[in-house]
Amino acid sequence: MFVVVEMVDTVRIPPWNFQRQLNEAISEELNKKLANKVVYNVGLCICLYDITKLEDSYIFPGDGASHTKVHFRYVVFHPFLDEILVGKIKYCSQEGVHVTMGFFDDILIPPESLQQPAKFDEAEQVWVWEYETDEGAHDLYMDQGEDIRFRVTDEVFLDTSPTGPTTATPDPQAKPGQSTAPPPAEDSGQKKEAPYTLIGTICEPGLGLLSWWNS
Q1: Which of 27, 76, 174, 198 lies 20 to 30 Å (CA to CA) from residue 17?
Q2: Strand 196-201 to strand 208-209: parallel, antiparallel, or no bridges (unpaired)?
Q3: Distance of alpha carbon 30 from alpha carbon 121, whole angstroms
Q4: Measured between alpha carbons, how far is residue 14 from residues 21, 29, 54, 198 in Å?
Q5: Rounded distance between C-alpha atoms, residue 127 and residue 105, angstroms
């Protein structure tokens, strides 16, 4: 679930931190920059593990801060495929069951990966496993806050780096003095895309709500 990743970065230390130990100041700056951030194709950064190498520090003209190239290792949340994890159900929707680990919320179990047969209860807004027994079907609800065991089947990284403004194409029919700026985007209220998403499954014996198998 957690891995240690080797990284290299140039860290800027402002002059008011020169009285501190260099390692201490660099550790603080690295955690400010990376902690709780997703690095593309790496995972969710948790905290600094250690610093393995410090290169020479430089002060550039016009900037009183020092710049140091640092080799370090960082603790990253990046489960491997087919790893079994236990989280809590955050909420359910038509998209599937949304799971949280407490520190990471972007986990989705799609409908086709639930224990089958499954249905979505519109009134309760929960998914239900229609468990077949000799006495008939029993509805097992996947309620919010319940502990759930799932297997990681896929991961999706999305590059959310800021992009430049779109270039407006000139309108040949525009009158002199008339603005040719594009209309404001209408999707500003849309849901923000997650930079890192895990896809899971519970469609196997032993997976799903812990309460199903404890009893």
Answers
A1: 76
A2: unpaired
A3: 46
A4: 13, 10, 17, 38
A5: 18
